[in-house]
Amino acid sequence: MIKDLLIILISSSLVNNVVLSQFLGLCPFLGVSKKTNTAAGMGVAVIFVITLASAVSGLVYKFILERFDVTYLQTIVFILVIAALVQFVEMFLKKFMPPLYQALGVYLPLITTNCAVLGIALTNVQKKYGILTGIVNGFATAAGFTVAIVILAGIREKMEYNDIPESFRGMPIVLVTAGLMAIAFCGFSGLL
Amino acid sequence: MDNSNSMERLYNGLVKENPTFVLMLGMCPTLAVTTSAMNGLGMGLTTMVVLALSNMIISLLRNIIPDKVRIPAFIVVIASFVTMVELLLEGFIPALYDALGLYIPLIVVNCIILGRAEAYASKNPVIPSLFDGIGMGLGFSFALTCIGAVRELIGAGEIFGLHIMPDSYVPCAIFIMAPGAFFVLAALTAVQNKIRINGERKGKDMSKIQSGCSEDCMNCNEKGCSHRFYGEGKESGQK
Protein backbone atom coordinates (compact mmCIF):
# COMPACT_ATOMS: atom_id res chain seq x y z
CA MET A 1 0.00 0.00 0.00
CA ILE A 2 2.71 2.47 1.07
CA LYS A 3 4.77 1.35 -1.91
CA ASP A 4 1.89 1.99 -4.32
CA LEU A 5 1.39 5.45 -2.88
CA LEU A 6 5.10 6.18 -3.18
CA ILE A 7 5.08 5.13 -6.82
CA ILE A 8 2.10 7.40 -7.49
CA LEU A 9 3.87 10.21 -5.67
CA ILE A 10 6.95 9.97 -7.87
CA SER A 11 5.20 9.25 -11.13
CA SER A 12 2.68 12.07 -10.80
CA SER A 13 5.11 14.69 -9.60
CA LEU A 14 8.16 14.00 -11.73
CA VAL A 15 7.71 11.39 -14.45
CA ASN A 16 4.34 12.53 -15.76
CA ASN A 17 4.75 16.13 -14.75
CA VAL A 18 1.42 17.84 -15.08
CA VAL A 19 2.61 20.86 -17.08
CA LEU A 20 5.63 19.54 -18.89
CA SER A 21 4.21 16.29 -20.16
CA GLN A 22 0.45 16.67 -19.90
CA PHE A 23 0.09 20.40 -20.61
CA LEU A 24 -2.46 20.99 -17.88
CA GLY A 25 -2.33 24.29 -16.03
CA LEU A 26 -0.27 25.82 -18.78
CA CYS A 27 -1.73 29.30 -18.46
CA PRO A 28 -0.67 29.98 -14.86
CA PHE A 29 2.60 28.21 -15.65
CA LEU A 30 3.39 30.72 -18.38
CA GLY A 31 1.56 33.69 -16.87
CA VAL A 32 2.63 33.74 -13.22
CA SER A 33 6.25 32.68 -13.61
CA LYS A 34 7.99 36.03 -13.86
CA LYS A 35 9.27 36.07 -10.28
CA THR A 36 10.25 33.19 -8.03
CA ASN A 37 8.29 34.30 -4.98
CA THR A 38 5.01 34.82 -6.84
CA ALA A 39 5.60 31.50 -8.59
CA ALA A 40 6.10 29.80 -5.23
CA GLY A 41 2.94 31.44 -3.88
CA MET A 42 1.00 30.23 -6.87
CA GLY A 43 2.48 26.77 -6.41
CA VAL A 44 1.42 26.56 -2.76
CA ALA A 45 -2.08 27.77 -3.63
CA VAL A 46 -2.30 25.14 -6.37
CA ILE A 47 -1.16 22.39 -3.99
CA PHE A 48 -3.76 23.50 -1.47
CA VAL A 49 -6.63 23.70 -3.94
CA ILE A 50 -5.85 20.54 -5.89
CA THR A 51 -5.40 18.39 -2.79
CA LEU A 52 -8.67 19.66 -1.38
CA ALA A 53 -10.44 19.34 -4.72
CA SER A 54 -9.32 15.76 -5.26
CA ALA A 55 -10.57 14.88 -1.78
CA VAL A 56 -13.95 16.51 -2.33
CA SER A 57 -14.43 15.25 -5.87
CA GLY A 58 -13.43 11.76 -4.75
CA LEU A 59 -16.07 11.84 -2.01
CA VAL A 60 -18.71 13.24 -4.33
CA TYR A 61 -17.96 10.59 -6.94
CA LYS A 62 -18.03 7.71 -4.49
CA PHE A 63 -20.99 8.68 -2.34
CA ILE A 64 -23.23 10.55 -4.75
CA LEU A 65 -22.49 9.76 -8.37
CA GLU A 66 -21.75 6.06 -7.99
CA ARG A 67 -24.47 5.56 -5.43
CA PHE A 68 -27.17 6.91 -7.70
CA ASP A 69 -25.58 5.50 -10.83
CA VAL A 70 -25.17 8.84 -12.58
CA THR A 71 -21.43 8.71 -13.19
CA TYR A 72 -21.90 10.16 -16.68
CA LEU A 73 -22.60 13.49 -14.99
CA GLN A 74 -19.07 13.64 -13.63
CA THR A 75 -17.80 16.48 -15.81
CA ILE A 76 -20.69 18.79 -14.96
CA VAL A 77 -20.71 17.92 -11.27
CA PHE A 78 -16.95 18.17 -10.83
CA ILE A 79 -16.63 21.57 -12.41
CA LEU A 80 -19.43 23.03 -10.33
CA VAL A 81 -18.14 21.40 -7.14
CA ILE A 82 -14.62 22.69 -7.78
CA ALA A 83 -15.78 26.22 -8.58
CA ALA A 84 -17.94 26.29 -5.44
CA LEU A 85 -15.14 24.80 -3.35
CA VAL A 86 -12.63 27.45 -4.36
CA GLN A 87 -15.13 30.21 -3.59
CA PHE A 88 -15.80 28.64 -0.23
CA VAL A 89 -12.11 28.23 0.59
CA GLU A 90 -11.56 31.86 -0.26
CA MET A 91 -14.34 33.01 2.06
CA PHE A 92 -13.23 30.63 4.81
CA LEU A 93 -9.62 31.77 4.72
CA LYS A 94 -10.62 35.41 4.64
CA LYS A 95 -12.71 35.00 7.76
CA PHE A 96 -10.72 32.54 9.86
CA MET A 97 -7.13 32.56 8.68
CA PRO A 98 -6.27 36.05 7.51
CA PRO A 99 -2.48 35.48 7.36
CA LEU A 100 -2.91 32.48 5.07
CA TYR A 101 -5.46 34.42 3.04
CA GLN A 102 -3.00 37.23 2.56
CA ALA A 103 -0.41 34.81 1.33
CA LEU A 104 -2.63 32.81 -1.00
CA GLY A 105 -5.63 35.08 -1.56
CA VAL A 106 -4.44 36.69 -4.76
CA TYR A 107 -3.91 33.36 -6.42
CA LEU A 108 -7.11 31.62 -5.40
CA PRO A 109 -9.45 33.29 -7.89
CA LEU A 110 -6.94 32.58 -10.63
CA ILE A 111 -7.17 28.84 -10.14
CA THR A 112 -10.92 28.56 -9.68
CA THR A 113 -11.23 26.31 -12.65
CA ASN A 114 -7.68 25.84 -13.75
CA CYS A 115 -7.74 22.89 -16.11
CA ALA A 116 -5.29 21.01 -13.91
CA VAL A 117 -7.82 20.90 -11.06
CA LEU A 118 -10.55 19.40 -13.20
CA GLY A 119 -7.98 17.25 -15.00
CA ILE A 120 -6.85 15.60 -11.78
CA ALA A 121 -10.38 15.01 -10.53
CA LEU A 122 -11.11 13.25 -13.84
CA THR A 123 -7.83 11.31 -13.87
CA ASN A 124 -8.56 9.99 -10.39
CA VAL A 125 -11.86 8.64 -11.65
CA GLN A 126 -10.41 7.30 -14.89
CA LYS A 127 -7.66 5.41 -13.11
CA LYS A 128 -10.15 4.16 -10.51
CA TYR A 129 -8.15 5.55 -7.60
CA GLY A 130 -9.69 5.31 -4.14
CA ILE A 131 -10.15 8.44 -2.07
CA LEU A 132 -6.80 8.28 -0.25
CA THR A 133 -4.90 7.37 -3.43
CA GLY A 134 -6.72 10.19 -5.20
CA ILE A 135 -5.65 12.70 -2.58
CA VAL A 136 -2.04 11.53 -2.78
CA ASN A 137 -2.19 11.72 -6.57
CA GLY A 138 -3.62 15.23 -6.40
CA PHE A 139 -0.99 16.38 -3.95
CA ALA A 140 1.84 14.84 -5.99
CA THR A 141 0.62 16.35 -9.24
CA ALA A 142 0.33 19.78 -7.68
CA ALA A 143 3.79 19.40 -6.13
CA GLY A 144 5.08 18.64 -9.62
CA PHE A 145 3.42 21.81 -10.87
CA THR A 146 5.09 23.80 -8.11
CA VAL A 147 8.51 22.36 -8.87
CA ALA A 148 8.12 23.18 -12.56
CA ILE A 149 6.81 26.72 -12.09
CA VAL A 150 9.49 27.63 -9.52
CA ILE A 151 12.27 26.32 -11.78
CA LEU A 152 10.85 28.22 -14.76
CA ALA A 153 10.56 31.40 -12.71
CA GLY A 154 14.17 31.04 -11.59
CA ILE A 155 15.34 30.68 -15.18
CA ARG A 156 13.20 33.61 -16.31
CA GLU A 157 14.68 35.86 -13.62
CA LYS A 158 18.17 35.07 -14.91
CA MET A 159 17.06 35.48 -18.50
CA GLU A 160 15.82 39.00 -17.96
CA TYR A 161 19.23 40.56 -18.60
CA ASN A 162 20.13 38.47 -21.60
CA ASP A 163 20.20 39.75 -25.13
CA ILE A 164 17.42 37.82 -26.81
CA PRO A 165 16.58 38.26 -30.52
CA GLU A 166 13.72 40.70 -30.87
CA SER A 167 11.11 38.29 -32.16
CA PHE A 168 11.89 35.77 -29.43
CA ARG A 169 11.37 38.20 -26.58
CA GLY A 170 8.50 37.47 -24.22
CA MET A 171 6.52 34.31 -24.72
CA PRO A 172 8.60 32.47 -27.38
CA ILE A 173 11.76 32.26 -25.29
CA VAL A 174 9.72 31.13 -22.29
CA LEU A 175 8.26 28.36 -24.40
CA VAL A 176 11.70 27.31 -25.60
CA THR A 177 12.79 27.19 -21.95
CA ALA A 178 9.73 25.13 -21.08
CA GLY A 179 10.58 22.77 -23.95
CA LEU A 180 14.11 22.29 -22.68
CA MET A 181 12.73 21.65 -19.20
CA ALA A 182 10.36 19.10 -20.69
CA ILE A 183 13.35 17.32 -22.25
CA ALA A 184 15.07 17.32 -18.87
CA PHE A 185 11.96 15.92 -17.21
CA CYS A 186 11.85 13.16 -19.85
CA GLY A 187 14.95 11.88 -18.08
CA PHE A 188 12.82 10.95 -15.08
CA SER A 189 10.98 8.36 -17.12
CA GLY A 190 13.79 5.94 -16.35
CA LEU A 191 12.93 6.16 -12.65
CA LEU A 192 10.02 3.76 -12.66
CA MET B 1 -30.65 36.77 -41.06
CA ASP B 2 -28.72 37.96 -44.07
CA ASN B 3 -26.18 35.75 -45.66
CA SER B 4 -23.28 38.17 -45.61
CA ASN B 5 -23.35 38.39 -41.82
CA SER B 6 -23.00 34.62 -41.45
CA MET B 7 -20.14 34.58 -43.95
CA GLU B 8 -18.53 37.44 -42.07
CA ARG B 9 -18.70 35.42 -38.82
CA LEU B 10 -17.05 32.44 -40.52
CA TYR B 11 -14.29 34.62 -41.97
CA ASN B 12 -13.82 36.29 -38.61
CA GLY B 13 -13.28 32.97 -36.82
CA LEU B 14 -11.09 31.43 -39.49
CA VAL B 15 -8.80 34.34 -40.29
CA LYS B 16 -9.27 37.65 -38.55
CA GLU B 17 -9.62 36.34 -35.01
CA ASN B 18 -8.23 32.87 -35.40
CA PRO B 19 -8.32 31.58 -31.80
CA THR B 20 -4.94 29.88 -31.99
CA PHE B 21 -2.83 31.87 -34.43
CA VAL B 22 -4.05 35.35 -33.54
CA LEU B 23 -5.47 35.22 -30.02
CA MET B 24 -3.49 32.30 -28.55
CA LEU B 25 -6.38 30.93 -26.58
CA GLY B 26 -7.02 27.37 -25.47
CA MET B 27 -3.38 26.39 -25.44
CA CYS B 28 -3.65 23.26 -23.29
CA PRO B 29 -5.44 21.11 -25.88
CA THR B 30 -3.48 22.76 -28.66
CA LEU B 31 -0.24 21.42 -27.28
CA ALA B 32 -1.47 18.17 -25.88
CA VAL B 33 -3.33 16.54 -28.74
CA THR B 34 -1.44 17.75 -31.79
CA THR B 35 0.87 14.75 -31.95
CA SER B 36 -0.57 14.03 -35.39
CA ALA B 37 -2.66 15.91 -37.94
CA MET B 38 -5.53 13.46 -37.47
CA ASN B 39 -5.70 13.98 -33.70
CA GLY B 40 -5.53 17.74 -34.17
CA LEU B 41 -8.39 17.65 -36.66
CA GLY B 42 -10.44 15.38 -34.40
CA MET B 43 -9.97 17.63 -31.40
CA GLY B 44 -10.72 20.73 -33.47
CA LEU B 45 -13.96 19.33 -34.86
CA THR B 46 -15.06 18.07 -31.45
CA THR B 47 -14.48 21.51 -30.00
CA MET B 48 -16.32 23.06 -32.96
CA VAL B 49 -19.43 20.97 -32.33
CA VAL B 50 -19.47 21.93 -28.65
CA LEU B 51 -18.77 25.57 -29.45
CA ALA B 52 -21.48 25.87 -32.10
CA LEU B 53 -24.16 24.11 -30.04
CA SER B 54 -23.39 25.88 -26.79
CA ASN B 55 -23.27 29.23 -28.58
CA MET B 56 -26.69 28.48 -30.03
CA ILE B 57 -28.28 27.48 -26.72
CA ILE B 58 -26.68 30.33 -24.78
CA SER B 59 -27.91 32.76 -27.39
CA LEU B 60 -31.42 31.33 -27.08
CA LEU B 61 -31.30 31.67 -23.31
CA ARG B 62 -29.59 35.04 -23.24
CA ASN B 63 -32.67 36.93 -22.09
CA ILE B 64 -33.63 34.34 -19.48
CA ILE B 65 -30.33 33.85 -17.66
CA PRO B 66 -29.91 36.46 -14.90
CA ASP B 67 -26.71 38.43 -15.28
CA LYS B 68 -25.31 37.49 -11.87
CA VAL B 69 -25.31 33.75 -12.44
CA ARG B 70 -24.47 33.81 -16.11
CA ILE B 71 -21.03 32.21 -15.79
CA PRO B 72 -22.22 29.11 -13.88
CA ALA B 73 -25.16 28.86 -16.26
CA PHE B 74 -22.87 28.99 -19.29
CA ILE B 75 -20.62 26.38 -17.73
CA VAL B 76 -23.52 24.01 -17.16
CA VAL B 77 -24.63 24.38 -20.80
CA ILE B 78 -21.10 23.83 -22.08
CA ALA B 79 -20.46 20.88 -19.75
CA SER B 80 -23.71 19.23 -20.85
CA PHE B 81 -22.70 19.40 -24.51
CA VAL B 82 -19.21 18.17 -23.71
CA THR B 83 -20.68 15.18 -21.89
CA MET B 84 -22.96 14.39 -24.86
CA VAL B 85 -20.11 14.68 -27.34
CA GLU B 86 -17.92 12.53 -25.11
CA LEU B 87 -20.52 9.77 -24.93
CA LEU B 88 -21.11 9.94 -28.70
CA LEU B 89 -17.40 9.69 -29.44
CA GLU B 90 -17.02 6.78 -27.04
CA GLY B 91 -19.86 5.01 -28.78
CA PHE B 92 -19.14 5.76 -32.43
CA ILE B 93 -15.48 6.74 -32.89
CA PRO B 94 -13.70 4.83 -30.13
CA ALA B 95 -10.28 5.25 -31.80
CA LEU B 96 -10.48 9.03 -31.55
CA TYR B 97 -11.93 8.76 -28.04
CA ASP B 98 -8.90 6.77 -26.93
CA ALA B 99 -6.45 9.11 -28.64
CA LEU B 100 -7.89 12.27 -27.10
CA GLY B 101 -8.65 10.70 -23.72
CA LEU B 102 -8.72 13.16 -20.86
CA TYR B 103 -8.72 16.16 -23.17
CA ILE B 104 -12.33 15.61 -24.28
CA PRO B 105 -13.89 16.41 -20.89
CA LEU B 106 -11.36 19.20 -20.54
CA ILE B 107 -12.99 20.99 -23.48
CA VAL B 108 -15.21 22.44 -20.74
CA VAL B 109 -12.37 24.59 -19.49
CA ASN B 110 -11.22 25.67 -22.93
CA CYS B 111 -11.42 29.42 -22.68
CA ILE B 112 -12.37 29.86 -26.34
CA ILE B 113 -15.79 28.43 -25.59
CA LEU B 114 -16.59 30.43 -22.48
CA GLY B 115 -14.94 33.45 -24.07
CA ARG B 116 -17.25 33.24 -27.09
CA ALA B 117 -20.28 32.67 -24.90
CA GLU B 118 -19.45 35.76 -22.91
CA ALA B 119 -18.25 37.99 -25.72
CA TYR B 120 -20.65 37.07 -28.50
CA ALA B 121 -23.43 34.55 -27.90
CA SER B 122 -24.80 36.25 -24.80
CA LYS B 123 -25.41 39.44 -26.77
CA ASN B 124 -26.39 38.35 -30.26
CA PRO B 125 -29.25 36.48 -31.94
CA VAL B 126 -29.22 32.76 -32.56
CA ILE B 127 -28.15 32.38 -36.20
CA PRO B 128 -25.09 34.66 -36.06
CA SER B 129 -24.08 33.01 -32.77
CA LEU B 130 -24.30 29.59 -34.38
CA PHE B 131 -22.16 30.72 -37.31
CA ASP B 132 -19.78 32.46 -34.95
CA GLY B 133 -19.30 29.15 -33.15
CA ILE B 134 -18.79 27.30 -36.41
CA GLY B 135 -16.30 29.93 -37.64
CA MET B 136 -14.28 29.95 -34.44
CA GLY B 137 -14.40 26.16 -34.33
CA LEU B 138 -13.19 25.89 -37.93
CA GLY B 139 -10.38 28.32 -37.18
CA PHE B 140 -9.39 26.22 -34.18
CA SER B 141 -9.58 22.97 -36.21
CA PHE B 142 -7.51 24.51 -39.00
CA ALA B 143 -4.85 25.65 -36.55
CA LEU B 144 -4.71 22.33 -34.71
CA THR B 145 -4.48 20.41 -37.98
CA CYS B 146 -1.61 22.63 -39.16
CA ILE B 147 0.31 22.27 -35.91
CA GLY B 148 -0.39 18.53 -35.86
CA ALA B 149 0.79 18.21 -39.48
CA VAL B 150 4.05 20.03 -38.76
CA ARG B 151 4.77 17.92 -35.70
CA GLU B 152 3.85 14.71 -37.49
CA LEU B 153 5.95 15.64 -40.52
CA ILE B 154 9.07 16.42 -38.52
CA GLY B 155 8.53 13.81 -35.85
CA ALA B 156 7.46 10.85 -37.96
CA GLY B 157 7.88 11.89 -41.60
CA GLU B 158 4.17 11.47 -42.23
CA ILE B 159 1.04 13.56 -42.66
CA PHE B 160 -2.33 11.98 -41.87
CA GLY B 161 -0.45 8.68 -41.69
CA LEU B 162 0.86 8.96 -45.28
CA HIS B 163 4.58 8.64 -45.71
CA ILE B 164 5.84 11.88 -47.24
CA MET B 165 9.47 12.34 -46.39
CA PRO B 166 12.06 10.34 -48.41
CA ASP B 167 13.33 7.17 -46.79
CA SER B 168 16.68 8.77 -46.03
CA TYR B 169 14.95 11.18 -43.63
CA VAL B 170 15.48 10.21 -40.03
CA PRO B 171 12.40 11.23 -38.01
CA CYS B 172 13.12 13.54 -35.15
CA ALA B 173 10.92 11.81 -32.61
CA ILE B 174 11.15 14.55 -30.03
CA PHE B 175 8.64 16.56 -32.05
CA ILE B 176 5.83 14.15 -31.36
CA MET B 177 6.77 14.05 -27.70
CA ALA B 178 5.95 16.73 -25.14
CA PRO B 179 9.01 18.98 -25.66
CA GLY B 180 8.29 19.24 -29.38
CA ALA B 181 4.95 20.84 -28.63
CA PHE B 182 6.68 23.61 -26.73
CA PHE B 183 9.19 24.17 -29.52
CA VAL B 184 6.55 24.34 -32.24
CA LEU B 185 4.51 26.78 -30.18
CA ALA B 186 7.65 28.81 -29.48
CA ALA B 187 8.30 29.09 -33.22
CA LEU B 188 4.69 30.06 -33.79
CA THR B 189 4.71 32.80 -31.17
CA ALA B 190 8.05 34.06 -32.51
CA VAL B 191 6.51 34.43 -35.98
CA GLN B 192 3.55 36.16 -34.41
CA ASN B 193 5.84 38.54 -32.52
CA LYS B 194 7.69 39.32 -35.74
CA ILE B 195 4.46 40.14 -37.56
CA ARG B 196 3.31 42.31 -34.68
CA ILE B 197 6.59 44.22 -34.46
CA ASN B 198 6.64 44.81 -38.23
CA GLY B 199 3.03 45.91 -38.15
CA GLU B 200 3.66 48.32 -35.31
CA ARG B 201 6.57 49.84 -37.18
CA LYS B 202 4.22 50.56 -40.03
CA GLY B 203 1.85 52.14 -37.55
CA LYS B 204 -0.92 49.56 -37.68
CA ASP B 205 -3.01 48.66 -34.65
CA MET B 206 -1.75 45.25 -33.63
CA SER B 207 -3.06 45.15 -30.09
CA LYS B 208 -5.24 42.13 -30.79
CA ILE B 209 -2.33 39.88 -31.53
CA GLN B 210 -1.20 38.53 -28.21
CA SER B 211 0.93 35.66 -27.16
CA GLY B 212 -0.38 33.44 -24.47
CA CYS B 213 -3.20 33.49 -22.03
CA SER B 214 -2.04 35.32 -18.99
CA GLU B 215 -3.47 33.61 -15.97
CA ASP B 216 -6.06 30.96 -16.26
CA CYS B 217 -7.51 28.80 -18.95
CA MET B 218 -11.05 29.60 -18.14
CA ASN B 219 -11.33 32.57 -15.90
CA CYS B 220 -9.47 34.68 -18.38
CA ASN B 221 -12.75 35.81 -19.87
CA GLU B 222 -13.37 37.84 -16.76
CA LYS B 223 -9.82 38.90 -16.19
CA GLY B 224 -9.32 40.28 -19.63
CA CYS B 225 -9.34 37.69 -22.36
CA SER B 226 -12.66 38.59 -23.86
CA HIS B 227 -11.41 42.09 -24.62
CA ARG B 228 -9.14 40.31 -27.05
CA PHE B 229 -12.07 39.35 -29.17
CA TYR B 230 -12.26 42.43 -31.38
CA GLY B 231 -14.22 45.13 -29.67
CA GLU B 232 -17.09 42.88 -28.76
CA GLY B 233 -15.95 42.07 -25.26
CA LYS B 234 -15.37 45.59 -24.08
CA GLU B 235 -18.70 46.12 -22.46
CA SER B 236 -18.71 42.65 -20.91
CA GLY B 237 -15.95 43.63 -18.52
CA GLN B 238 -18.32 45.82 -16.55
CA LYS B 239 -20.80 44.10 -14.37
Mean pLDDT of chain A: 86
Q: Please tell me how large the radius of gyration of chain B is.
A: 18 Å
Strand content of chain A: under 5%
User: In sequence order, what are the helices and strands of chain A, one letter per element?
Assistant: HHHHHHHH
- Indicate the percent of residues in helices of chain A: over 70%
Total helix count of chain A?
A: 8
How far the N terminus sits from the C terminus of chain A, by CA atoms, comes to 17 Å
Distance between the termini of chain B: 29 Å
Q: What is the string of SSEs of chain B from the N terminus onward? A: HHHHHHHEEHH
**Can you count the helices of chain B?**
9
How would you sum up this structure, described in words?
The complex is a heterodimer of chains A (192) and B (239). Chain A has 192 residues and is an all-alpha fold. Chain A has eight helices and no strands. In chain A, helix 3 (36-65) packs antiparallel against helix 7. The longest helix of chain A has 30 residues, at 36-65. The two termini of chain A are 17 Å apart. Chain B has 239 residues and is mostly helical. Chain B has one domain (3-231). Chain B is 60% helix and 2% strand. Chain B is built from nine helices and two strands. Chain B has helices spanning 3-16, 27-32, 37-60, 70-92, 94-100, 111-121, 126-156, 178-201, 220-223, and strands spanning 158-159, 162-163. The two termini of chain B are 29 Å apart. Mean pLDDT of chain B is 80; it is low at 212-239. At the A-B interface, helix 2, helix 4, helix 6 and helix 8 of A face helix 2, helix 4 and helix 8 of B.
